Fold Beta-xylosidase.
Amino acid sequence: MKKFRRALVTFLSLSPFVQTQAQDAIIDHLPATGPASVVQKHMEQAKNPIIFADVPDMCIIRVDDTYYMSSTTMHMSPGVPVMRSKDLVNWTTVSYAYDILDDTESLNLDNGNNSYGRGSWASSLRYHNGIFYVSTFSGTTGKTYIYTTRDIEKGPWKKISFAPSLHDHSLYFAEDGRTFMVYGNGRIMIAELADDLSGIKKGTTPRVLIGNASAPAGNNIGLQAEGSQLFRVNGKFYLFNICWPRGGMRTVTIHRADSLEGPWEGRVALQDQGVAQGGLISTPEGNWYAYLFRDYGAVGRIPYWVPVTWENDWPVLGRGGKVPEQLNLPASKGLNPGIVESDDFKRKKGEPLLPLAWQWNHNPDNKNWSLTIRPGFLRLTTGRTDSSISQARNTLTQRTFGPQSSGATAIDVSKMKDGDCAGLLLLQKKYGWVGVKMENGEKNIVMVSAESGSPVEMQRLPLKGKMIHLRADCNFTNLTDKANFYYSLDGKSWVKIGGTLKMSYSMPHFMGYRFGLFNYATLSAGGYADFDYFRIGNSL
């Protein structure tokens, strides 16, 4: 026991990097009982993935001892979520850069148009002279957007937009007061912005920064270098990009230069598990990490952190070129309620109507949803007729998450009209849902699957009462990507309905599966459904 205590004291005095190397040796000599549990608790560490949910295209900054992270949610509103952390592991959504990106037919799901897989893409997050900047770009509108605020958590945000849409750009504030955007695909460009950031500076022309940023990964490239993130560390510039060699995997490349004028030299920085696209962040203690993400099937693109060391002024990613499972960071406390959140729809005076975990599928129609008409319930009223659930407005969504997650709700369906459909959705192109269809004055519990590419009603059962409980269970373990649906008449005894949905990540949506609450009409508008709660968890 004395040897164990001495070993523990020695361990606690080591640097985090050396602790990792020493940890296994100490655990091998722990006694079977007693202080072992205390040591195990002390040794709890973060594990990759850091967030087992769809949080892609991250950009992270640190202001003093607080980290902020922006991400991509594309066609969802509000958009460009901003999350806060004190330890790089446990994150809480604190704001969004915008309520809606723009008021267009495709963003409003009007006249058969949609913005699936578009909306706003990879953002750049910066802090300069007391102001926070979040910039993004859109394939829907063809514009670049810059949002600014002095209070990143409370706002308000000021919006600037201009054409063209600068792809996967990185915002950079130079020491001489000028502002630049680095952007592009394959050939990386740099443009100087006007002093008021209203567009590319008049009298200037964007120039080539790096002619072929994919070159370090070879000549046979499928996805050319993109996802630019530019950093300046100790007087040198570092440009992070992702590319994808054919027959290989997503790859991190880094280019380095002493000035923006170049010359630039590049190298492959990481090829492991397809973990790529992101940038650099340092801790107050001086430790460095690369924040990256990995495509992981139907759950989406999930964040991984990789330790960074420095050799000859180059950032070296990973341990022996590999992404470690464990990190010298505090353990995760879970995603609920920081990233996802249950909701009883009860609101106290002064509380926001919707927790920040919620996002609407496309722009909402604010005339047709309410938390006040019937306190304690979310009312979704149909404002028009639609031919499919993917075109329905006011579908309220949250992320699914891995390795397993469940979402459940209860609905009062007594005021639905003929042709109405309301329920619980798993949203992607190959969606599935469980809910109630109203036809010829009769209510039926149904499960619908679009796994084949078109919606198919897999099962229906008559519903006599006015309340129904619904549940969807997702299994993303080892890319299982399967979901099952259930109903209950009392919220206690659950019955499986329909078939198992084989979930599939598809480019038309370009997003991991989402839980969704919906109500849409196929015959006439004006019916409504009242949702009593939404509960989310690893299992229910």
About this structure: Residues 16-28 form the longest helix (13 residues). The CA atoms of residues 222 and 247 lie 9 Å apart. The chain is about 5% helix and 45% strand.
